């Protein structure tokens, strides 16, 4: 029993390593992301553009107006989807929970399509609000449908309901896109487009996401307790209803705001928390920050990949994630078969 | 000291428990017994404020438990639900550490006292050699002991357990019950448990509450409750009550299903 402190320390150490390596990867990724693209820009020029900005140089303008916001959006959105997934997995004790799988992303996307069609010229501020509401409605539908079933909520039932609701909402968005001839505007955005993110958008979404991410960190200990089960958590003196409400609002913010900016990107939220857990164990005080960092790094590197696969054309990032995510989904659902069915 | 006053408990609109008045004697082991669906688990959960009653009160030291701060209650009363499951990969020591939650503030760094209690709880349940093993990889009996260790780390005078021996083989059942007996003897804790095996209840409990359809049929010592007519009413079986040659306590030997049982019996 003497080595308990040692053990605790080693896990803290691993978690710190993940955070440090992750942040370094993000910084490197941002630099690389800025220099790689249809026009390759040397890293020294990148540094110059940030430190001594010269509006007469085209390269500086590309960096400032296109590449930098894109890189920052990658990190923010990647972190947000990953943390949303981590919170959902912890709160619902469901290894398959993810904003994409449970229909939240599809709900946001539908509301954005509705806004494009019926309220053109809507400010980005309002678009975010609608996107958030879309996620909330989808979440309500999925939970409603799966808890109506006999035997109540089970992880698999939740994912099935999520798939059904996603299919319906996506079909509706596509219908709107075709009918209002918005297909082109929406198509790239659907596949997960970080390319179009502008400073003006970034300014609006960043405060929301940062607030939600900080909230997630503050809630992390309570999430671990919830992961022991509702009854155990209540028995230990936790206000489970309150924690779940706050957790749900945080998830809806993270998913809703992210989708409004870059479209419904699935699987980041599913895969990344499992990676984080692999390194740091079951404590959400570590899982959440590590998911944020891994998610941010993962996203920016995938976005660089998306630009390099078939230049000068961009491969939709959502497609890339599906390539990684689908096999992983199958792996998790097989591995956890006994406990989740 | 826990008392219920005219407790009505309902799921949706269906009343499960009607006008329940029970008293849990302090510093004793109390067993709740009854057939499947009799509401004994529901009563336990409501007494531990995991469920809200439709009307009536549960009084903990004279105060309504559902109005007390849940964290304060958690310092008085620990409850182990039926079949708890730990997240995959959570070690025993991690699990036991969460038992300190009611005593912690903020982000939950451990004090020296916390660490001592955690080690004590692990030792008291004989889990030293498994402290760093994931809970999901332990045998049923070890797993149950790990959860009991978590409840012990809560350091509460009152301990509730919902069917702590279900799904365990006979040796592991005795292991868990002996541990509870020891805790009662050494620390005078008030223990309330739901048990299926009447003979275990008789052997380990000082006080028994027999429940049928949400009402108390009989409460008292094992001698008083373990009567053929009471058992017939509560469980719908006919039995002989004999004396345990070793302990002198009553033992129940069922021999037939009561004719008055309305439900068809398929053998």
TrEMBL record, chain A:
Gene Ontology cellular-component terms listed: plasma membrane
Keyword field contains Cell wall biogenesis/degradation: no
Alphabetized SUPFAM superfamilies for the sequence: ABC transporter involved in vitamin B12 uptake, BtuC (SSF81345)
Spans traversing the lipid bilayer: 12-34, 100-119, 126-146, 158-180, 208-229, 249-272, 284-309, 315-332
Subcellular compartments: Cell membrane
Pfam families found in the cross-reference section: FecCD (PF01032)
GO MF term (any one): transmembrane transporter activity
Family (UniProt): Belongs to the binding-protein-dependent transport system permease family. FecCD subfamily.
Protein name: Iron complex transport system permease protein
Native organism: Thermaerobacillus caldiproteolyticus
Automatic annotation (TrEMBL), chain B:
GO biological process: one example: iron ion transport
Name of the protein this chain belongs to: Iron complex transport system ATP-binding protein
Domain ABC transporter span(s) in chain numbering: 2-238
Pfam families: ABC_tran (PF00005)
SMART domains given in the database record: AAA (SM00382)
Main location: membrane
Membrane topology annotation: Peripheral membrane protein
Cell location: Cell membrane
Phylogenetic placement of the source organism: Bacteria, Bacillati, Bacillota, Bacilli, Bacillales
Gene Ontology MF terms: ATP binding; ATP hydrolysis activity
Domain of life of the source: Bacteria
Keywords recorded for this protein, A-Z: ATP-binding, Cell membrane, Ion transport, Iron, Iron transport, Membrane, Nucleotide-binding, Transport
InterPro entries in alphabetical order: AAA+_ATPase, ABC_transporter-like_ATP-bd, ABC_transporter-like_CS, P-loop_NTPase, Siderophore_ABC-ATPase
Gene Ontology CC terms: plasma membrane
